[in-house]
Amino acid sequence: MEKIAVFPGSFDPVTLGHVSIINRAIKLFDKIIIGIGVNSEKKSMYSLEQRKVWLNDIFKSEPKIIVDSYSGLTVDYCRNRNANYILRGLRTAADFEFERGIGQVNSMLDNNIETVFLLTEAKYTPISSSIVRDVLRNGGDVSGMVPSEVLLIN
Ligand code: ADP
Questions:
Q1: H or E stretch at 67
Q2: What is the mean pLDDT of residues 91-113?
Q3: Which tens digits make up the pLDDT trace of 25-38?
Q4: Whole-angstrom Cα distance, residue 135 to residue 75?
Q5: Residue 43 falls in the annotated catalytic set
Q6: Is the pLDDT of residue 152 over 90?
Q7: Could you give the residue ranges of the DSSP H alpha helices within the chain?
Q8: pLDDT at position 40, please?
Q9: Strand, helix or coil for residue 56
Q10: Euclidean distance between CA atoms 38 and 34, whole angstroms
Q11: Does 18 qualify as catalytic in the annotation?
Q12: Which entry of 27, 40, 42, 137 is annotated as an active-site residue?
C-alpha cells in the first residue's frame, strides 16, 4: 500500500519552514498532498490561486508532491485521497499543545489516520506565516523567511 500523507495548512504565504518540513518528509512517504485548507470564516492575505501557484512552482520538479485544496474535516479529506497520514511541523511547546488537541481529536474521528510530526529545523523556529504577513504589511524584508517565488510577488 502506498504511504500517502496530507500536509494541511493555510500556507498564507508558504514559508521556508513549510518547505523544509516537506523536503524532509519526502523520504518518509510515497506521496505528499499539500492540502490548502479553505475556511470561509478565515480571511487570507493571498488568494487560494496565488498560494497554489507558489507551491506548484516550488515543487515543480518533485513528482511525489501534489498541491490541492479542501474544505471541511481534514480526516474526511484524507479518506477521499486515500491518505493514512497527516503531516505536521512542530516548532515550540505551544505548537505541541495545539497539535496535541487536533491530533487526538482526529484520531477519535478516524483511528486509521496517524498524525506524524517533524521537528522544525532550529533556524526556522521563529518563522510563521502570520509573522511574515506582519513584516510584509509593514514594509520589512522577508527574504530569510520565504522562498524566492514568494519574494517575486512582494
Ligand atoms: P495552520 O493554518 O494550520 O496553522 P500553517 O500554514 O501555518 O497552517 O502551517 C501548516 C503546518 O506547517 C503546521 O503543521 C505548522 O506547524 C507547520 N509550520 C509552520 N511554520 C513552520 C516552521 N517555521 N517550521 C516548521 N513547521 C512549520
A1: strand 65-70
A2: 97
A3: 999 999 999 999 99
A4: 33
A5: no
A6: no
A7: 16-25, 48-58, 74-80, 93-109, 129-137, 148-153
A8: 78
A9: helix
A10: 12
A11: yes
A12: 42
